[in-house]
Amino acid sequence: MVATMVTGCSSDPVDAAPPVPLALPSATAASPKLHAETVTPSPRATPSPVPLTLDQAARHYLSTVRPYNIALERLEQAINGSQPVATLRRRAAQVATANRTQIGQLTDTAWPRTLRGLMGQLKAESLKAQRHWLLAARARDRDALIQEVLNAARHDGKPAVGKIRTLLRLEQYDEDDYS
Length: 179
Fold this sequence. Notes:
By secondary structure, this protein is mainly alpha-helical. The chain is built from 5 helices and 2 strands; from the N terminus they run E-E-H-H-H-H-H. Strand 1 (20-25) and strand 2 (34-39) form a beta hairpin. It is globular.
């Protein structure tokens, strides 16, 4: 029996090339039957994304945190404006949604090496806060909602945020930028 291996280089993605059936005549068989082998291309390493430059990181960071900061400011204004608890729950749910999106973007971005640890810290704090945002969105009354907002605020990531903004040469956080 003769075995044939097919190898090669291609610029096509691995998933784009289906297995290639090879039909070989049998050297030992009396009949001219064909035997088929399937050769699957070997997987290729996916290159790591190129980290952002500091200027790119600054712009991306601001666009990543902006929806969360806006939602948070709207919730704060609703609380201070004595809005009904149904409105507060809706605003808290918006904060939770924005926070979840922010966590995903913090995770999926190729940050410059100098920022990776700090972004990890901010992500960890955001994950801790998420539970409280969800509880605030389901709170039965105003006091319970406010307590969950205060619990979430303990995980604001302020130490990491201050360092991130300094490394990115951004001004310090100002809530007026989001109201």
